[in-house]
Amino acid sequence: MDSLRNRQWLLANRPVGSPRATDFVSAETSFELPALLPGQVVLKNSIFLLAPTIRNWLDAPGNNFYPSIALGDPVLSPSGGTVIASADPRFPVGARVSAISTWQDYEVVDTRERNVRPMPPGVTDVEAMGPLGMNALTAYFGLLRIGRPRVGETVVVSAAAGSAGSTAAQIAKIMGARSVGIAGGPAKCAWLVSECGLDAAIDYKTGNLRDQLEKACPAGIDVFFDNVGGDTLQAAVDTMARFGRIVLCGQISGYTDSVPIPGPENMMRLIYGGITMQGFLLEHFEDDLAEGWHHLQSWLRNGSIVHREDVRAGFAAIPESFPALFDGTNAGTLMVTAD
Ligand code: NAP
Q1: What is the pLDDT of residue 192?
Q2: Which of 17, 52, 83, 329 could hold 95 in an S-S bridge, CB 3.0 to 4.6 Å?
Q3: Dist. CA 38 → ligand 1 center (Å)
Q4: Which of 37, 133, 40, 115 is nearest to 76 (CA)?
Protein backbone atom coordinates (compact mmCIF):
# COMPACT_ATOMS: atom_id res chain seq x y z
CA MET A 1 0.00 0.00 0.00
CA ASP A 2 1.22 3.50 -0.82
CA SER A 3 2.03 5.74 2.09
CA LEU A 4 -0.99 7.60 3.38
CA ARG A 5 -1.40 11.28 4.18
CA ASN A 6 -1.77 11.54 7.94
CA ARG A 7 -3.07 14.77 9.45
CA GLN A 8 -2.32 15.33 13.13
CA TRP A 9 -3.05 17.70 15.97
CA LEU A 10 -0.12 17.79 18.40
CA LEU A 11 0.06 19.18 21.92
CA ALA A 12 1.97 22.46 21.52
CA ASN A 13 1.85 23.67 25.11
CA ARG A 14 0.19 22.63 28.32
CA PRO A 15 -2.97 24.69 28.87
CA VAL A 16 -3.28 26.88 31.91
CA GLY A 17 -6.94 26.82 32.92
CA SER A 18 -9.39 26.23 30.10
CA PRO A 19 -7.88 24.82 26.90
CA ARG A 20 -7.46 27.11 23.88
CA ALA A 21 -7.14 26.23 20.21
CA THR A 22 -3.60 27.62 20.30
CA ASP A 23 -2.54 24.87 22.72
CA PHE A 24 -2.43 22.58 19.68
CA VAL A 25 -0.48 22.67 16.44
CA SER A 26 -1.24 20.86 13.20
CA ALA A 27 1.22 18.61 11.43
CA GLU A 28 1.19 16.20 8.54
CA THR A 29 3.17 12.99 8.14
CA SER A 30 3.03 10.08 5.76
CA PHE A 31 1.78 6.88 7.31
CA GLU A 32 2.95 3.48 6.18
CA LEU A 33 1.43 0.28 7.47
CA PRO A 34 3.86 -1.19 9.98
CA ALA A 35 4.44 -4.87 10.72
CA LEU A 36 2.03 -5.42 13.57
CA LEU A 37 2.72 -7.17 16.85
CA PRO A 38 0.05 -9.54 18.19
CA GLY A 39 -2.83 -7.50 19.61
CA GLN A 40 -2.16 -4.42 17.49
CA VAL A 41 -4.58 -2.95 14.97
CA VAL A 42 -4.34 0.05 12.64
CA LEU A 43 -7.31 2.41 12.77
CA LYS A 44 -8.43 4.92 10.21
CA ASN A 45 -10.21 7.45 12.39
CA SER A 46 -13.41 8.91 10.95
CA ILE A 47 -14.83 10.70 14.01
CA PHE A 48 -13.43 12.10 17.25
CA LEU A 49 -15.36 12.31 20.52
CA LEU A 50 -14.23 15.38 22.42
CA ALA A 51 -14.24 14.23 26.03
CA PRO A 52 -13.67 16.52 29.02
CA THR A 53 -11.11 14.16 30.52
CA ILE A 54 -8.74 14.87 27.60
CA ARG A 55 -8.07 18.13 29.47
CA ASN A 56 -6.68 16.07 32.39
CA TRP A 57 -4.37 14.23 29.98
CA LEU A 58 -2.90 17.56 28.79
CA ASP A 59 -1.39 18.19 32.24
CA ALA A 60 2.24 17.44 33.05
CA PRO A 61 2.97 13.97 34.41
CA GLY A 62 2.22 13.67 38.10
CA ASN A 63 -1.21 12.20 38.55
CA ASN A 64 -0.83 8.44 38.56
CA PHE A 65 -4.45 7.87 37.71
CA TYR A 66 -4.38 8.98 34.11
CA PRO A 67 -1.95 9.45 31.24
CA SER A 68 -0.04 12.63 30.48
CA ILE A 69 0.35 13.43 26.77
CA ALA A 70 3.92 14.47 25.96
CA LEU A 71 4.49 17.86 24.35
CA GLY A 72 4.70 17.37 20.59
CA ASP A 73 2.67 14.15 20.62
CA PRO A 74 -0.72 13.66 18.93
CA VAL A 75 -3.51 14.24 21.42
CA LEU A 76 -4.96 11.08 22.96
CA SER A 77 -8.71 10.93 22.37
CA PRO A 78 -11.70 8.65 22.05
CA SER A 79 -12.39 8.12 18.35
CA GLY A 80 -14.42 6.02 15.98
CA GLY A 81 -13.06 4.42 12.86
CA THR A 82 -12.35 1.36 10.77
CA VAL A 83 -9.67 -1.28 11.23
CA ILE A 84 -7.44 -1.29 8.12
CA ALA A 85 -4.84 -3.78 9.36
CA SER A 86 -5.12 -6.20 12.23
CA ALA A 87 -3.17 -8.60 14.40
CA ASP A 88 -6.14 -9.10 16.74
CA PRO A 89 -8.73 -11.63 15.51
CA ARG A 90 -11.43 -9.89 17.57
CA PHE A 91 -11.10 -6.80 15.35
CA PRO A 92 -10.56 -7.95 11.73
CA VAL A 93 -9.90 -5.63 8.79
CA GLY A 94 -13.10 -3.71 8.05
CA ALA A 95 -14.40 -3.81 11.64
CA ARG A 96 -15.87 -0.51 12.82
CA VAL A 97 -14.71 0.28 16.33
CA SER A 98 -14.55 2.99 18.93
CA ALA A 99 -11.21 3.24 20.66
CA ILE A 100 -8.86 5.37 22.64
CA SER A 101 -6.88 6.69 19.70
CA THR A 102 -5.31 10.08 18.92
CA TRP A 103 -6.09 13.25 16.98
CA GLN A 104 -4.70 11.93 13.70
CA ASP A 105 -6.02 10.06 10.66
CA TYR A 106 -4.20 6.80 11.33
CA GLU A 107 -3.20 5.21 14.61
CA VAL A 108 -1.63 1.92 15.64
CA VAL A 109 -3.57 0.81 18.71
CA ASP A 110 -2.47 -1.99 20.99
CA THR A 111 -5.78 -3.53 22.03
CA ARG A 112 -4.17 -5.01 25.15
CA GLU A 113 -3.27 -1.56 26.41
CA ARG A 114 -6.01 0.70 25.07
CA ASN A 115 -9.73 0.31 25.14
CA VAL A 116 -11.19 -0.84 21.79
CA ARG A 117 -14.89 -1.67 21.42
CA PRO A 118 -16.90 -2.84 18.42
CA MET A 119 -19.49 -0.36 17.20
CA PRO A 120 -23.00 -1.79 17.43
CA PRO A 121 -23.96 -3.14 13.98
CA GLY A 122 -26.05 -1.05 11.60
CA VAL A 123 -25.53 2.34 13.21
CA THR A 124 -23.83 5.46 11.91
CA ASP A 125 -20.60 6.84 13.36
CA VAL A 126 -22.54 9.60 15.07
CA GLU A 127 -25.01 7.15 16.64
CA ALA A 128 -22.18 4.87 17.75
CA MET A 129 -20.30 7.73 19.43
CA GLY A 130 -23.35 9.67 20.62
CA PRO A 131 -26.58 8.04 21.82
CA LEU A 132 -24.90 4.59 21.95
CA GLY A 133 -21.44 5.85 22.78
CA MET A 134 -19.16 5.99 25.75
CA ASN A 135 -21.04 8.74 27.58
CA ALA A 136 -24.44 7.11 27.18
CA LEU A 137 -23.09 3.78 28.43
CA THR A 138 -21.42 5.58 31.32
CA ALA A 139 -24.77 7.10 32.27
CA TYR A 140 -26.49 3.72 32.00
CA PHE A 141 -24.09 1.78 34.23
CA GLY A 142 -23.33 4.58 36.66
CA LEU A 143 -26.96 5.38 37.31
CA LEU A 144 -28.35 1.84 37.34
CA ARG A 145 -25.53 -0.14 38.95
CA ILE A 146 -24.33 2.44 41.45
CA GLY A 147 -27.18 4.92 41.90
CA ARG A 148 -29.88 2.21 41.72
CA PRO A 149 -32.84 4.63 41.65
CA ARG A 150 -36.18 3.28 42.86
CA VAL A 151 -39.69 4.29 41.86
CA GLY A 152 -40.66 7.58 43.51
CA GLU A 153 -37.13 8.50 44.57
CA THR A 154 -35.56 11.84 43.64
CA VAL A 155 -32.54 11.73 41.33
CA VAL A 156 -30.43 14.82 40.68
CA VAL A 157 -27.92 14.97 37.82
CA SER A 158 -25.28 17.69 37.32
CA ALA A 159 -24.15 18.83 33.85
CA ALA A 160 -27.57 17.42 33.02
CA ALA A 161 -27.88 18.96 29.57
CA GLY A 162 -24.63 17.37 28.45
CA SER A 163 -23.89 14.03 26.87
CA ALA A 164 -23.60 11.74 29.89
CA GLY A 165 -25.88 13.88 32.05
CA SER A 166 -28.88 14.07 29.74
CA THR A 167 -28.87 10.29 29.33
CA ALA A 168 -28.59 9.66 33.07
CA ALA A 169 -31.39 12.11 33.86
CA GLN A 170 -33.74 10.48 31.35
CA ILE A 171 -32.93 6.93 32.49
CA ALA A 172 -33.90 8.10 35.98
CA LYS A 173 -37.35 9.01 34.59
CA ILE A 174 -37.63 5.62 32.87
CA MET A 175 -36.97 3.99 36.24
CA GLY A 176 -39.92 5.86 37.73
CA ALA A 177 -37.89 8.37 39.72
CA ARG A 178 -38.38 12.12 39.95
CA SER A 179 -35.58 13.59 37.87
CA VAL A 180 -34.02 16.98 38.49
CA GLY A 181 -31.23 18.37 36.33
CA ILE A 182 -28.62 21.02 37.08
CA ALA A 183 -27.38 22.95 34.03
CA GLY A 184 -25.99 26.32 33.00
CA GLY A 185 -28.47 28.81 31.57
CA PRO A 186 -32.20 29.04 30.79
CA ALA A 187 -32.00 27.44 27.33
CA LYS A 188 -30.44 24.22 28.63
CA CYS A 189 -32.89 24.12 31.56
CA ALA A 190 -35.87 24.62 29.25
CA TRP A 191 -34.62 21.80 26.96
CA LEU A 192 -34.31 19.44 29.93
CA VAL A 193 -37.90 19.98 31.01
CA SER A 194 -39.67 20.39 27.66
CA GLU A 195 -37.75 17.90 25.49
CA CYS A 196 -36.24 15.44 27.95
CA GLY A 197 -39.25 15.37 30.28
CA LEU A 198 -37.40 16.10 33.52
CA ASP A 199 -39.50 17.17 36.49
CA ALA A 200 -37.37 20.23 37.18
CA ALA A 201 -34.16 21.89 36.07
CA ILE A 202 -31.96 24.20 38.11
CA ASP A 203 -29.81 26.91 36.53
CA TYR A 204 -26.68 26.82 38.70
CA LYS A 205 -25.54 30.13 37.23
CA THR A 206 -28.36 32.00 39.00
CA GLY A 207 -28.98 31.95 42.73
CA ASN A 208 -27.66 29.73 45.48
CA LEU A 209 -27.46 26.11 44.35
CA ARG A 210 -28.06 24.59 47.76
CA ASP A 211 -31.21 26.69 48.27
CA GLN A 212 -32.45 25.73 44.83
CA LEU A 213 -31.79 22.03 45.48
CA GLU A 214 -33.67 22.19 48.79
CA LYS A 215 -36.61 23.78 47.03
CA ALA A 216 -36.62 21.30 44.13
CA CYS A 217 -36.04 18.28 46.39
CA PRO A 218 -38.06 18.91 49.58
CA ALA A 219 -37.54 15.32 50.81
CA GLY A 220 -33.84 15.40 49.94
CA ILE A 221 -31.85 13.81 47.12
CA ASP A 222 -31.90 10.01 46.98
CA VAL A 223 -29.44 9.66 44.10
CA PHE A 224 -26.96 12.30 43.00
CA PHE A 225 -25.22 11.58 39.68
CA ASP A 226 -22.32 14.01 39.65
CA ASN A 227 -20.41 15.13 36.58
CA VAL A 228 -19.12 18.39 38.07
CA GLY A 229 -17.61 18.05 41.59
CA GLY A 230 -16.51 21.01 43.73
CA ASP A 231 -19.24 23.37 44.94
CA THR A 232 -21.89 21.40 43.06
CA LEU A 233 -21.01 18.21 44.88
CA GLN A 234 -20.92 20.10 48.17
CA ALA A 235 -24.42 21.50 47.65
CA ALA A 236 -25.72 18.00 46.89
CA VAL A 237 -23.98 16.42 49.90
CA ASP A 238 -25.72 19.02 52.05
CA THR A 239 -29.09 18.07 50.55
CA MET A 240 -28.89 14.26 50.50
CA ALA A 241 -31.70 12.16 51.96
CA ARG A 242 -31.06 9.31 54.38
CA PHE A 243 -29.52 6.27 52.67
CA GLY A 244 -28.88 8.31 49.51
CA ARG A 245 -26.31 7.30 46.92
CA ILE A 246 -23.80 9.70 45.36
CA VAL A 247 -22.45 8.51 42.00
CA LEU A 248 -19.11 10.13 41.17
CA CYS A 249 -18.96 10.16 37.37
CA GLY A 250 -16.77 13.21 36.73
CA GLN A 251 -15.43 16.45 38.20
CA ILE A 252 -15.36 18.77 35.22
CA SER A 253 -15.27 21.90 37.40
CA GLY A 254 -11.78 20.85 38.49
CA TYR A 255 -10.27 19.72 35.19
CA THR A 256 -8.93 23.20 34.43
CA ASP A 257 -7.34 23.63 37.88
CA SER A 258 -3.65 22.96 38.39
CA VAL A 259 -4.29 20.96 41.57
CA PRO A 260 -7.07 18.46 42.29
CA ILE A 261 -10.17 20.17 43.65
CA PRO A 262 -10.95 19.38 47.28
CA GLY A 263 -13.61 16.86 48.23
CA PRO A 264 -16.73 17.91 50.09
CA GLU A 265 -16.75 19.02 53.72
CA ASN A 266 -18.82 17.54 56.50
CA MET A 267 -18.41 13.83 55.89
CA MET A 268 -20.23 13.25 59.20
CA ARG A 269 -23.34 13.94 57.16
CA LEU A 270 -22.64 10.77 55.18
CA ILE A 271 -22.15 8.79 58.36
CA TYR A 272 -25.31 10.01 60.05
CA GLY A 273 -27.34 9.71 56.87
CA GLY A 274 -26.06 6.27 55.87
CA ILE A 275 -25.10 7.84 52.54
CA THR A 276 -22.72 6.16 50.12
CA MET A 277 -20.43 7.87 47.63
CA GLN A 278 -18.83 5.76 44.90
CA GLY A 279 -16.75 6.55 41.85
CA PHE A 280 -16.64 4.45 38.72
CA LEU A 281 -15.35 4.22 35.17
CA LEU A 282 -17.24 2.77 32.24
CA GLU A 283 -14.38 0.26 31.90
CA HIS A 284 -15.54 -1.34 35.14
CA PHE A 285 -18.60 -2.59 33.25
CA GLU A 286 -16.80 -3.72 30.09
CA ASP A 287 -18.27 -7.24 30.15
CA ASP A 288 -21.84 -5.92 30.22
CA LEU A 289 -21.80 -3.43 27.33
CA ALA A 290 -24.26 -5.49 25.25
CA GLU A 291 -26.86 -5.04 27.98
CA GLY A 292 -26.35 -1.27 27.93
CA TRP A 293 -26.58 -1.05 24.14
CA HIS A 294 -29.71 -3.21 24.11
CA HIS A 295 -31.59 -0.99 26.54
CA LEU A 296 -30.33 2.30 25.11
CA GLN A 297 -31.38 1.25 21.62
CA SER A 298 -34.87 0.27 22.69
CA TRP A 299 -35.34 3.50 24.71
CA LEU A 300 -34.15 5.57 21.74
CA ARG A 301 -36.48 3.68 19.42
CA ASN A 302 -39.54 4.12 21.62
CA GLY A 303 -38.75 7.76 22.32
CA SER A 304 -38.10 7.39 26.07
CA ILE A 305 -34.71 9.00 25.53
CA VAL A 306 -33.97 11.97 23.35
CA HIS A 307 -30.37 12.65 22.56
CA ARG A 308 -28.68 15.56 20.90
CA GLU A 309 -25.33 15.70 19.23
CA ASP A 310 -23.11 18.66 18.47
CA VAL A 311 -21.25 17.43 15.40
CA ARG A 312 -18.63 19.68 13.84
CA ALA A 313 -17.23 18.92 10.43
CA GLY A 314 -13.62 18.52 9.45
CA PHE A 315 -10.35 17.55 11.12
CA ALA A 316 -9.31 21.20 11.23
CA ALA A 317 -12.18 21.96 13.63
CA ILE A 318 -10.92 19.79 16.51
CA PRO A 319 -8.88 22.30 18.58
CA GLU A 320 -11.33 25.18 18.17
CA SER A 321 -14.21 22.89 19.22
CA PHE A 322 -12.64 21.34 22.32
CA PRO A 323 -12.97 24.43 24.61
CA ALA A 324 -16.77 24.30 24.22
CA LEU A 325 -16.89 21.56 26.86
CA PHE A 326 -15.49 23.99 29.41
CA ASP A 327 -17.47 27.13 28.53
CA GLY A 328 -20.67 25.11 28.14
CA THR A 329 -21.30 26.07 24.51
CA ASN A 330 -21.54 22.45 23.34
CA ALA A 331 -25.13 21.46 22.61
CA GLY A 332 -24.98 17.74 23.34
CA THR A 333 -22.33 15.13 22.64
CA LEU A 334 -19.41 17.02 21.11
CA MET A 335 -17.88 15.26 18.11
CA VAL A 336 -15.78 16.23 15.12
CA THR A 337 -15.82 14.25 11.88
CA ALA A 338 -12.52 13.66 10.11
CA ASP A 339 -13.90 14.90 6.77
P1 NAP B 1 -20.87 17.28 28.47
O2 NAP B 1 -21.67 17.17 29.72
O3 NAP B 1 -21.54 16.99 27.18
O4 NAP B 1 -20.19 18.69 28.37
C5 NAP B 1 -19.58 19.26 29.48
C6 NAP B 1 -20.55 20.19 30.21
O7 NAP B 1 -20.07 20.41 31.54
C8 NAP B 1 -20.61 21.59 29.61
O9 NAP B 1 -21.52 21.67 28.53
C10 NAP B 1 -21.05 22.43 30.80
O11 NAP B 1 -22.47 22.45 30.86
C12 NAP B 1 -20.55 21.64 32.01
N13 NAP B 1 -19.47 22.35 32.70
C14 NAP B 1 -18.26 22.69 32.20
N15 NAP B 1 -17.53 23.34 33.14
C16 NAP B 1 -18.31 23.40 34.25
C17 NAP B 1 -18.14 23.96 35.55
N18 NAP B 1 -16.99 24.57 35.90
N19 NAP B 1 -19.16 23.86 36.43
C20 NAP B 1 -20.32 23.26 36.09
N21 NAP B 1 -20.55 22.71 34.87
C22 NAP B 1 -19.55 22.79 33.97
O23 NAP B 1 -19.59 16.32 28.63
P24 NAP B 1 -19.55 14.74 28.82
O25 NAP B 1 -18.57 14.23 27.84
O26 NAP B 1 -20.92 14.17 28.89
O27 NAP B 1 -18.87 14.59 30.26
C28 NAP B 1 -19.61 14.88 31.45
C29 NAP B 1 -18.85 14.34 32.66
O30 NAP B 1 -18.84 12.91 32.59
C31 NAP B 1 -17.40 14.79 32.74
O32 NAP B 1 -17.09 15.08 34.08
C33 NAP B 1 -16.65 13.56 32.26
O34 NAP B 1 -15.33 13.54 32.73
C35 NAP B 1 -17.52 12.46 32.85
N36 NAP B 1 -17.35 11.14 32.25
C37 NAP B 1 -17.00 10.11 33.06
C38 NAP B 1 -16.86 8.84 32.56
C39 NAP B 1 -16.55 7.70 33.49
O40 NAP B 1 -16.23 6.61 33.01
N41 NAP B 1 -16.61 7.92 34.80
C42 NAP B 1 -17.05 8.59 31.19
C43 NAP B 1 -17.44 9.68 30.36
C44 NAP B 1 -17.59 10.95 30.91
P45 NAP B 1 -23.26 23.72 31.51
O46 NAP B 1 -23.50 24.66 30.37
O47 NAP B 1 -24.48 23.09 32.05
O48 NAP B 1 -22.34 24.32 32.54
Answers
A1: 98
A2: 83
A3: 36
A4: 115
